[in-house]
Structure formats: C-alpha cells, structure tokens
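Appendix B, record 7
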Amino acid sequence: MKRIFTILIFVVSINSLHAEFPSFKWDVSHWILSGGFGMSSILVDGTSYQAIFDPKLRLSPALTLGSKNSFNMSTDKIITLETQAFLRWNFLSFPKRDPGYFQQAFNIFIQAGVGLLGSVKGPDDSGFPKEKNTRASLLFDGTLGVTIPLGKRWVIEPAVRGGYPFIWGATFTFGYKFPLPQKTVYQEGPVRYEYLDTVEYQNKVEYQDRVEYRDRVEYKDRVEFVSVPITNEIIKRIMISRVDYILFGPDISNYNTGIDADGRSLNDLVLTSVVQTLKNDPNSRIRLEGHANPVTNSPDEIQELSALSANRANEIARLLREKGVSENQIIVVALGGTRTLTGEQARWNMNRRVELIVFQGDIN
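Structure tokens (predicted):
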C-alpha cells in the first residue's frame, strides 16, 4: 500500500510541472497520423505480424483520443483485422525546450481500447482453402508506451499491449503532427515581441539582467516574489503580419512636418501600403504605438512626452480613418519615452515615431 501511495505522489508531482513552470508551453491540440508494425499472439499459438494505422487527436497535455486499426497475418496463416477506439492518459511528461521556443515533451502513457476483431483462416500449403473457419469478437486492449519527439513534428511510439481475446504483443509506430484548424492562426510557442532591451512573452518579460513572471522576478543570484501583477504590457495570442514606422519631427505631432523630403516620402509610402492592407483584410487590425524621445527623464518631461506620443498616435489614426479604415480596426497606445530604439543623439529621430503593427488575433 505504501508503494502505491508513493507512486501516486510521484505522478502528481511530475504533472505539477504544467503549473509550476509557466515558461513551458506544452504542445497540445493537434492531430497525429501514425503507422507502423508490431507482433502479437492474436488467436494463434505462434506469432502474428501486424501493419498498423493509428490516427490520434491530442486533446490536452494529459489526454489523447484515437483509433487503432491493424491487418495481421500469423505464422499459421490466420488473417485478422482489428479496429478499436482508445483513450490515452499521458501520465508522465518530461519537457524539452529547443531554441525555436517550441515546447515538446517525452510522454509515458497508458491507454485503454475497445473494438472489434475479425479473423479467417487462409489457404493451406496446397493452395486449396480450408473449411470455413471465421470468428468475430469484441476486443479489449490495454497499452503501455512512450511518445518520443523527433524534431518539431515527428514522433515515435514504442509500446507493449495485452488484452482480450488472447492478445499480447509489442508495437512500434511513426507519427506526424498536424495542428488543428483554427479561425485565428497562432504562432508556435509563446508569442514574443522584441524591443531594444526586452523580450515580452504571454506570461513573462525577459530583460538583460532578469526575468519577470507575474508572481516573481528571477535574477541570476536570487528570486524575489511579488504580491501584485506585473504592469508590463504583454501582447499575446496574435499573428503579426507587418510592423512599420512613421517618423516625426522634434516636439511635433503633425504628420510630415519638421522632417526632410526623403522622410516625408517614406512616411507616405508606409501609410498608403498599410491602408491598402487593412482594406483588403477587414479581419486585420492595427495597433498604433506613439513614441517620443526622452532627454532629461525629469517628471515634467515624462508627462509631456506621454501627451506628445498620444498626439502622434492619434494623428495617424485620424489619417487612417480619413482614408477609409474602419474605427474597429484601430487601437491607439501612447508609450511616451519608455521604449526608445537608440540612445545615439545622431539617430534620435528613430525614437520620434509611431509604430504601426498590423495583426490578427486578441491583444491584452
């Protein structure tokens, strides 16, 4: 009894990885089409060899629903067809992170299946059929195996099985993962948005010297827990199709004022192209981020830059509306001087900008 209790505690502890490590994004909600081979003792004294087709739907980190179908030929020439539906429990998962932010996992699973089994004897050595000897039966099957990821899409699954009627055996299948069709396209792994010194994910912000989660800040030498949510703005569940810039003159929020002819020409090209993109795709939206260039970082200047960046973003929003873009497609954000692109005085014009981010999806 103590051993069973210890095993249960271990299983629960391992599965708590889903909650304890929010940086891991488990690869779930996809189809797996797989096929392979195996051997068993279906209704025979000898060995039966199998060809397997095994489509599955991953419903969650723990559950998979699928169907196993096989054609079997035994050493004593009994042909068997098997089909079953099964439910799989991935009760142990070990995360693996690759440089592309795509989360994979080694899964140890058990599954239970129910289905039908039909068999018929083949011809004898002379080529003449034997007397009719067919059988149909209900099938109950239990399987223990492991899912091993190979790259981003391929998996292999060795397993052992046992059940009724008179079944034992082993299988080895190869599978390919297909994402589920969705109305909104999501990027694999946590969506990230990069600035000069930060990378922002759905659940954390990475700075050069620390990582801020919603409940703690992790430094190289310590972890500090916080009692209030981090206020950093997080962009999530979106597919960004393009990011453009419109530049402004110093201390000016009027479009194409206070900049040279080349700058005005580039601004016009960007604005025309973005308008066309938004009109062609009414489901797309645009986020207008107003920015300004900080010099002294004094409280008065911070307040002034916040208003200036808001005026710049609203100026571009006004122009988009005049050119026929729907109000529902426009989001305006003022970020003041909090996100500069450069600290070089000769390039301060890059900080006096509105970022035009065209996207589909939801935004926080």
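Remarks on this record: The first helix runs from residue 2 to 15. The radius of gyration is 30 Å.
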